Amino acid sequence: MPALPRLPVVRELIKIYGISAKSELGQNFIFDKNITDKIVSSAFISPTDVLVVEVGPGPGLLTRSILDAGARNVVAVEKDARFIPTLTQLTEASEDRLKILHGNMLKIPHTDILNAANISPPSLTSPSPQGNLGDIHIVGNLPFNVASPLLLQFLRMLSQRKGLFGVGARVRMTFMFQKEVGKTLTANIGTEHRGRFSVMAQSLCDVRTIYEVPSKVFFPVPKVDASVVQFVPRMDNTLDAAEYEMLENVLRYFFTKRRKTIGNILNRLAKRVPATGPLLPALLATGQAYHQAQRPENLTNEQYGEIARWIRKREIEIPLS
Ligand code: SAM
């Protein structure tokens, strides 16, 4: 893979184009290539990926590291038009390995990304088995307030096998989060940070922190440190799309009552929705460690999955809080 030619330093480019970080867009840039190289190597971005989608490339230093790692086919989606000229230069320098799309990753049709990447999946409507197409890697240092909604959207799409998740590729995701959010996403059962997000992400993916980033490497310096978290879809996931959607509701219901016990939460639910009355006895009958005196953070991902499956099978609607 040809190396990138010498390019102006990103910090200088920003000066030349007179671009300043917009705090309302959550823009905190990384100007240290050692850091972006480390993110890319910890994420295992490789020339064998059929596609790397970078979300929010900004001035493009992480993009350079991705290209330097030998990625063959990169599509970067950037919302802020001010960066398009510098990114377009990078497209030329990369001999077209990089394509730029100007848009909002939360809204852009994934077919636009696949078209830009020149990938024609077998069929976008009838998904083929995961892995046939190879590996797709979605990666991004995004504003903290965009990374979480984007992850939730992607988890749902993964459960539905839609968009990039429905083309028969194995799709890994690597995103930067506020350190505290990273702790929640990776939190084990019974720990302080365990929450709704932990179970949602871990039910569908193996989740781990691959790199810790101190706040001082960003410009401007944000108030908190960050961590890069990677999500690899679990091959042993048994939840279908409807069950995952129910899981989202179950988790919302349980974790808005995180100080209550499981017994209390299920008894309250049974009073509001009588059809859920047999749920607690059914769970206790599984012989697993369902202790009524435990709290929401003490249930495993699998136990929440069973609750969602039980409710979904009976087509019961549960309240959101
Ligand atoms: N990746 C660059 C870096 O590491 O220096 C920039 C990081 S900055 C925290 C986030 C970037 O994401 C900005 O360039 C911002 O304009 C872009 N962005 C914000 N929301 C976006 C969205 N919904 N879709 C695409 N890009 C977005």
Description:
With 321 residues, the protein is α/β, with parallel strands linked by helices. The chain has two domains: 10-233, 3-Layer(aba) Sandwich (Rossmann fold), CATH 3.40.50.150; 242-313, Helicase, Ruva Protein, domain 3 (Orthogonal Bundle), CATH 1.10.8. The protein is 38% helix and 17% strand. The protein has twelve helices and nine strands. Strands 4-3-2-5-6-9-7 form a seven-stranded mixed β-sheet, with helices on both faces. A two-stranded antiparallel ribbon has the order 1-8. Helix 2 packs across helix 3 (61-68), helix 8 crosses helix 12 (301-313) and helix 9 (241-255) crosses helix 12. The termini are far apart. The relative contact order is 0.11. The mean pLDDT is 91. The chain binds S-adenosylmethionine.
Features:
single chain; 321 residues; alpha/beta; Rossmann fold; Helicase, Ruva Protein, domain 3; 2 domains; seven-stranded mixed sheet; two-stranded antiparallel sheet; 12 helices; 17% strand; binds S-adenosylmethionine; rRNA_adenine_dimethylase; 18S rRNA (adenine(1779)-N(6)/adenine(1780)-N(6))-dimethyltransferase activity
Q: Can you say what the CATH homologous superfamily of the largest domain is?
A: Vaccinia Virus protein VP39
How many domains? The number is 2
Helix/sheet category: alpha/beta
Number of helices: 12
Shape: elongated
Any ligands, ions or cofactors bound here, and which? Answer: S-adenosylmethionine
- The name of the CATH architecture of the largest domain is 3-Layer(aba) Sandwich
Give the integer mean of the pLDDT values: 91
Give a short account of the largest sheet: 7 strands, mixed
Number of strands: 9
SSE pattern: HEHEHEHEHEHEHHEEEHHHH
- CATH top-level class of the largest domain: Alpha Beta
Query: If strands are numbered along the chain, what order do they take across the biggest sheet?
Result: 4-3-2-5-6-9-7
What portion of residues belong to β-strands?
15-25%
Rg from C-alpha positions? Answer: 22 Å
Give the low-pLDDT segments: none
Q: Summarize the amount of helix as a percent range.
A: 25-40%
The CATH topology of the largest domain, please? Answer: Rossmann fold
Distance between the termini: 53 Å
Catalytic activity: adenosine(1779)/adenosine(1780) in 18S rRNA + 4 S-adenosyl-L-methionine = N(6)-dimethyladenosine(1779)/N(6)-dimethyladenosine(1780) in 18S rRNA + 4 S-adenosyl-L-homocysteine + 4 H(+)
Keywords: Methyltransferase, RNA-binding, rRNA processing, S-adenosyl-L-methionine, Transferase
Pfam families: RrnaAD
InterPro entries: KsgA/Erm (IPR001737), rRNA_Ade_diMease-like_C (IPR023165), rRNA_Ade_Mease_Trfase_CS (IPR020596), rRNA_Ade_methylase_Trfase_N (IPR020598), rRNA_adenine_dimethylase (IPR011530), SAM-dependent_MTases_sf (IPR029063)
